[in-house]
Amino acid sequence: MSKVYFASARVKKWKYDESMPGKLERLLKEIGLSRYFEQKEWVAVKTHFGSEGAHRIVRPVFLRKVVDALKEIGANPCLTDTVRIKGLDYLEVANQNGINHLSVGAPVVIADGLYGNDNIMVKAGEILGEIAVASLIHDVSAMVVCSHVKGHINAGYGGAIKNIAMGAVSGSHRTCGWKCGRGAMHAIGEGKFIWDDEKCTFCYQCEEICPLDCIEFKDEKFDYYDEKCWRCGRCTRVCPEGALTLPGGDDKTFMKSLAEAAKAVLSTFKPDKVIYINFLTEIQPECDCMPAAEVPIIQDIGILVSDDIVAVEQASIDLLIKEKPLPSSLAEERNVKEDEDILLSLHKKPYIIQVEEAERLGLGRREYELKELV
Predict the structure, then answer these.
(1) DSSP-based three-state secondary structure for 274
(2) What pLDDT does 187 receive?
(3) What was the pLDDT predicted at 189?
(4) Fewest beta carbons less than 10 Å away: which of 88, 180, 284, 345?
(5) Collapsed DSSP state (helix, strand, coil) of residue 302
(6) Are 181 and 313 in contact (CB under 8 A)?
(7) CA 253, 256, 262, 266 torsion: positive or negative?
(8) What is each CA distance from 74 to 29, 68, 271, 332, 358, in whole angstroms?
């Protein structure tokens, strides 16, 4: 049975040790980083840099605590993520969101290069075949996965599995394009956009949100640069009329593809070289890659740490399910009841499949022992 260490977001005493940063320090001592990482070893701290307007990421103060703890045992950490937009722009977004060398105490680098095609093909499984893992994550010997737990329009739930399944995989490959990148999960199959001109009101939100400037309207007709597009699906998400769709696989296949991609990423590491920190804070309904952040739908719960990705995900989900929807949030607007699974009610996605499939693929166990800080 895997151990999952937990620190509650509640503060019972007005002492630094009871603060969230203080509790994170204690969690990292509890798990014992020196059991996993060696002196002078390069360690990638994988997180999400957010987007311009999306600020509910893992806060820099927590990332700094992870970096400091790694330095304390003599390891050499760097903060990293794969590009969602053009690389230099993404580094500037990270800086705007407070993630830079000065704030976190370590270099902040792009894992798959400034153009998002610096990657290495890795065998993935029956659904994906092969997937383009970011070269930095492929080559580095150890990793700490810092995940902001939240909802997601496709995955339903976004935690550690999604963080590495999509966040450690490039958007595109130099020769096979999006079909070898994270777009292979977003749009299983041909991935051709369908535009319904009768529904379209020409609000141009799809064009504005495209991170690669792929979309344009010529003579009031939707068009996109097929070879350049990563199939991230942002354009379809923001269309208020449902005029733009991106057909892909069914929900079950998508969830399984996430587990496949996660396994491919983790296959590049030796055993006991990756740990997972799930931050159940500022839990919003959508991904941090969108151009805005919603108000939280669930109250802050705390921080979970484990060396088992399946166990830390299951523990996170178990804690989420117990929570009540917050007032003045999307959950209240959608009339989610107190006894309902909030993320399942909002997105109607069978998100638990990604965790079940990860267990089936041998990435960990759903059975766990929760050890709460005293």
Answers:
(1) strand
(2) 73
(3) 64
(4) 88
(5) strand
(6) no
(7) negative
(8) 14, 10, 20, 47, 32
